[in-house]
Write a structure and sequence with these properties.
single chain, six-stranded mixed beta sheet, 12 strands, 29% helix
Length: 192
C-alpha cells in the first residue's frame, strides 16, 4: 500500500463514473475511432442534411447560421462496414430508469433499419438508460417486435426488463468505451 502526503491511498479509491450517461454519442464515436485505427471497421456518424437559409457574417473570421431547415428526414445516426457487412444503427438515451419510449424512434427510421436488415445488413439500436448508467444493443428484429406491439394497441415503450431479456448489455471499458462490435460478433446469428 502506498500512502501519499495527504494520507490517502489513491490506489484504493473507487473510480467515479458519474456524468458518463450524458455522452453516449461521444462513447460511440470513441469506439468508432478505435475500430478505424485498428482496422476493425469503418463506421461514421451521418451528417444531418440541412438547407441553410440565412447566414450572419459579423466579421471576416466568423459566420453564424441564423436560419436552416432539414432537407429530408434523417435516417439513422451511424453507418459503415464491418467484416464485409453493412452496419446501420441509431443511438438513443432515456432519462427513465424503467423503460424506453418508442416515440424516441421515428417511423421512417424503423422502416429504414428494417430495409437494411431485409437486404442483409446489420441494423440495431443502442439505448442508454442515463439514470442507472446501463447501455444496451437491441437488434432491429426485436425493436420491430416492440414497435409493432405499440402500433397494435400495446405498450408504447420497451421496459428495462425487456431490454435485459432481449438485448445485450454493453460494458464500459477504457480501451474502446462501448465495444458494440464485440457483442455483434459474439451474437452474429441474432443480428443477421
Amino acid at each position: 500500500m502506498v500512502n501519499y502526503p495527504n494520507g490517502k491511498n489513491n490506489f484504493s479509491q473507487k473510480t467515479n463514473y458519474a456524468g458518463r450517461g450524458m455522452q453516449l454519442e461521444s462513447d460511440i464515436n470513441f469506439a468508432n475511432k478505435y475500430y478505424l485505427r485498428n482496422d476493425i471497421a469503418i463506421i461514421h456518424k451521418k451528417p444531418i442534411p440541412i438547407q441553410v437559409v440565412e447566414v450572419d457574417y459579423p466579421n471576416r473570421q466568423s459566420s453564424m447560421i441564423k436560419k436552416a431547415y432539414y432537407q429530408t428526414p434523417s435516417t439513422t445516426d451511424y453507418n459503415g462496414l464491418w467484416n464485409g457487412k453493412y452496419i446501420d444503427f441509431e443511438a438513443k438515451e432515456t432519462s427513465s430508469d424503467t423503460s424506453f419510449s418508442l416515440s424516441n424512434i421515428h417511423d421512417h427510421q424503423i422502416e429504414h433499419m428494417i430495409n437494411v436488415y431485409k437486404h442483409g445488413g446489420i441494423s440495431f439500436v443502442v439505448v442508454r438508460f442515463k439514470k442507472i448508467d446501463r447501455t444496451f444493443v437491441m437488434c432491429i428484429k426485436n425493436v420491430f417486435y416492440y414497435y409493432n406491439r405499440s402500433k397494435n394497441g400495446g405498450r408504447k415503450s420497451i421496459s428495462l426488463k425487456e431490454f435485459e431479456n432481449t438485448a445485450f448489455e454493453l460494458e464500459f471499458n477504457y480501451k474502446v468505451r462501448l465495444d458494440y462490435l464485440k457483442i455483434i460478433k459474439e451474437n452474429e446469428r441474432e443480428f443477421l
